Amino acid sequence: MRWPKIPLGLRLFLLCFVLVAITAYAVTQTVLQELKPTVRQTTEETLVDMANLLAVLAQEDVANGKISESRFAQLLMAYGQRKPQAKIWQVGKNDINHRIYITDKNGIVIADSWQKDVGADFSQWNDVYLTLRGKYGARSTKQNPNDPLSSVMHVAAPIYHHGKIIGSVTVAKSNRSIQPFIDLTKRNLVYWIFAMGVVVLLVGGVFAWRTHAALQKLERYAEKLGAGEKVAKPQFRVFYEYATLSDALEKMRNQLDGKQYVETYVETLTHELKSPLSAIKGASEILQLPLTEPEILRFAGNIERESDRMQSLIDRLLQLARLEKKPQLDALELICVKTMVESVVAAADAKLTAKTLQCHILVDDQFWVMGEAFLLKQALFNLMDNALDFVAPHGQIIWRAALSQDMLQLSIENSGPHIPDYALARLTERFYSLPRANGVKSTGLGLNFVEQVMQLHRGALHIENSEIGVKVSLYLPIAS
Predict the structure, then answer these.
(1) pLDDT at 233 > cutoff 90
(2) φ, ψ at 415 (rounded to 5°)
(3) Where does a domain end: 305, 328, 351?
(4) What is the pLDDT of residue 91?
(5) Signal peptide position in this chain (predicted)?
(6) Is 441 within 8 Å of 309 (Cβ atoms)?
(7) Both 416 and 445 in a single domain?
(8) How far apart are CA 358 and CA 396, in angstroms?
(9) What pTM did the predictor assign?
(10) Structural element, H or E, at residue 37
């Protein structure tokens, strides 16, 4: 059984989710288990202080045996009847929850804030029993055995007179009175742990997504490198490890490309230079024979023509090699399409005049593109040269520009013979060319160069037959 393929980003998020869930559960359970005992311990500590304070205040009245008739007893009773009408952290408090009673040295209740058990014998209750014997007296007693919240904490403090214990003061508080605070704290705790868990998951999700996106970016970069496409090296601001890997991939690609370029161009030059070299050698051998003046000029012209062809082939190959090794454009600038076309046409004015050709520029000056002016102009020169080579005698060349699905379509159309169907798909192949009317053989690199320039500009090249001849279109992104 094979494990399903789960994306790295999702795996990282699931791992983050599991860790957050386990941590939140463990922290919540631990805090909730410790919350109730901690609150009760804090309450007990407060009761101890209060009992000792009251023991000091009641000392004189208990020693004189007049506690029941004393001002202290009256205040104690008034205290038990007060209505605080307080609101403590969203919890209302309308009654006094503390009960205070005082016993003599025999454990008999002699004062009670609730006036409930005066005269009762509390000597056997742990709070009184232990306190009268000089020990810490405290107990927790359930008023209803079936109700765990009915338990009441009792904390006692001894009353001293001349160093002897003459009674005790007990302060009692129901655990039910502190339960709302415990419940409120639990709710707040669960809420904040949940909220923090969601925040951590969101941060973890963003981190997982960024990690996955960076990995996908690197994967697409590697795939395009492997396919031989031109692609700019991805930038990584946070994941510098990926940046290091992309640098390594680019370095490897450059090394492999360098080796491939050497092999490819050596083979290409060897193949393509055979024909002109053979022609030059044949012409030079013939020139060594006795010839007439016209024959000498004809074979010397062949040598010059084939030499120019070799020079053009070498120059084009070097130019194309530099272009193919260029991953992205260097200097982008805003270019007016009409101005660029006019400069290309102006450079070909001599050839247009010599062939008695008409050239029309139907390009509006509102069209602008972002690109590298030198490369785009070189591409247009190549298209113009091709049009001049294949245009019919006394024909016309037309430049047009129009919008096509958020792209600028810049086309050049020349009158003349159509391109055979079998050749249309191969015209951008390196060294593939059709015979020209003037008999001059092309290098077969011009359209391949134009295609490379279009790829760098995120555009496209399209060649088709038209009503009057051949139409070549360049698709470029419009400058925004």
Answers:
(1) no
(2) -75, 145
(3) 328
(4) 65
(5) none
(6) yes
(7) yes
(8) 5
(9) 0.44
(10) helix 8-64
